[in-house]
Amino acid sequence: MMRWCRGAAAALFAAATVPLTLAPGAAADPEIHADPQGPQEFAITSEVPTLAELDAQIRLLVATPAPDWVKAAQLEGGDRAVVVPKMIYRVGFFRSPKGSSMVTGPETHEPDRHTAVINASRQGAPTVAVVAEWRRIDGRWKLASKSLCNGIKTIGLPIPCNFQ
Q: Which residue pairs, CB below 8 angstroms and at least 24 apart, start in 102-105?
């Protein structure tokens, strides 16, 4: 019995010390869903964000257990807005195995504003397509608060939109 406990403890310790990485779901185009960085370093700083970057950001927000401060750095509303992606992650709406999301075009671009479409689906429900906006703040593209509010309304989450 003692030998089993030591073995189980060692296995738990080994599992707990594995670094957090984003593990996007399987996709037909692995480049779109690749994770070039760990979640703590994730930032979209390119002049014009790509669909792959925006898609990775949405997956970080709603399909990973990344820490609140990491998610807050991706949102225009910062700490005040983290409640939205946290709740979506907890209920598992748009993450494997029962759901998914993908950012697609059409896109529009201005120097500090970019739009694209977030397509989110979950088992037993129709796909939801939301035109989302990102804002460039301090050189980083962040999901706009008004897009979070549209998402709350679209999927019917009981969250007040008071982080704008």
A: 102/55, 103/51, 103/54, 103/55, 103/58, 103/132, 104/51, 105/51
CA distance 93 to 88: 6
CA dist 38 → 22, 33, 66, 130 (Å) = 7, 13, 10, 27
* β strands within the chain, DSSP E: 99-110, 113-122, 128-137, 140-143
The model's pTM is 0.73
How far from the centroid of its chain's Cα atoms is residue 17's Cα? Answer: 23
Domains of the chain, earliest start first:
34-155 (3.10.450)
| Side chain identity at residue 89, one-letter code | Y
**What does the DSSP assignment read for 18-53?**
SPP---PPP-S-TTTT---S-GGG----SSS--HHH
- The backbone region for 127, taken as left when phi is positive above 0, alpha when psi lies in -120 to 50, beta otherwise, is beta
Tens of pLDDT, residue by residue over 19-51, are: 333 333 333 333 333 344 556 678 999 999 999
Q: φ, ψ for residue 26 (rounded to 5)?
A: -60, 140
Please tell me the distance from the alpha carbon of residue 11 to that of residue 38, in angstroms, as a whole number.
23
